[in-house]
């Protein structure tokens, strides 16, 4: 019993460590969604451009650098011949500085590339920027840092998923049903009138429609009587 009592705190620490490790930030490169450890979602998919953005400049001595970037899953088109279109970020020299996702933490998405340099996308929540995103370029050691400032970099501000939307199946059926009934009545009445029918007799299939109320009544009776016909079974 004493041994179990001593082990209990250790087990609790181990379990707490496992829970902490499980609750990590993540980034879905296909959906362009950053999920925090508290399950808040930052959706930047709507910021994708038809052509890659040129971020910079960054002056390194006598050389001016730019970074080409587009929002998930890749550049989409090659801004310069030497740059791969399937790269995530590309330096103006043509080097792909982001091809593989390596780490996600603290609103930073880190990538490795084809060279010794790496890149980082930093999400900066700024609700005052609602149009084109503000993108700045800095360099820390061998890491190119692209900072995105926009309202979509704030958790839950931009659409997390375009669910719903569009016309439902029921709406489509109703849109087909009522015009069909209208055409059926108009065409039917015209045909019957040509045949000499007048008044209600000009309604197509009038005999059937006159029986509909009785059929509905019989249907309700059948349902509420649980199918009993009232006859005694022999």
From TrEMBL:
Keywords, sorted A to Z: Membrane, Signal, Transmembrane, Transmembrane helix
Pfam families: ATG27
Signal peptide interval: 1-24
InterPro entries, per the entry: Autophagy-rel_prot_27 (IPR018939)
Transmembrane segments: 172-191
Topology of the protein relative to the lipid bilayer: Single-pass membrane protein
Compartment(s) where it occurs, according to its Swiss-Prot or TrEMBL record: Membrane
Domain of life the protein comes from: Eukaryota
A GO term from the CC aspect: trans-Golgi network
Name of the protein described by the UniProt record: Autophagy-related protein 27
């Amino acid at each position: 019993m004493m041994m179990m009592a001593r082990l209990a705190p250790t087990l609790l620490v181990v379990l707490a460590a496992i829970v902490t490790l499980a609750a990590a930030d993540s980034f879905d490169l296909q959906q362009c969604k950053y999920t925090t450890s508290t399950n808040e979602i930052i959706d930047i998919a709507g910021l994708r451009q038809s052509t890659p953005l040129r971020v910079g400049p960054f002056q390194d001595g006598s050389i001016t650098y730019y970074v080409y970037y587009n929002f998930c899953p890749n550049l989409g088109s090659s801004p310069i011949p030497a740059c791969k279109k399937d790269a995530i970020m590309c330096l103006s020299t043509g080097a792909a500085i982001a091809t593989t996702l390596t780490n996600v933490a603290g609103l930073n998405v880190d990538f490795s590339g084809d060279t010794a340099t790496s890149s980082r996308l930093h999400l900066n929540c700024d609700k005052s920027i609602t149009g084109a995103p503000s993108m700045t370029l800095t360099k820390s050691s061998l890491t190119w840092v692209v900072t995105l400032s926009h309202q979509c970099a704030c958790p839950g501000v931009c659409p997390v998923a375009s669910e719903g939307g569009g016309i439902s199946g029921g709406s489509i059926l109703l849109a087909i049903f009522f015009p069909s009934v209208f055409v059926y009545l108009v065409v039917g009445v015209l045909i019957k009138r040509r045949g000499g029918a007048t008044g209600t007799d000009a309604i197509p299939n009038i005999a059937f429609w006159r029986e509909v109320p009785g059929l509905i009544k019989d249907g309700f009776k059948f349902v509420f009587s649980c199918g009993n016909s009232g006859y005694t079974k022999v």
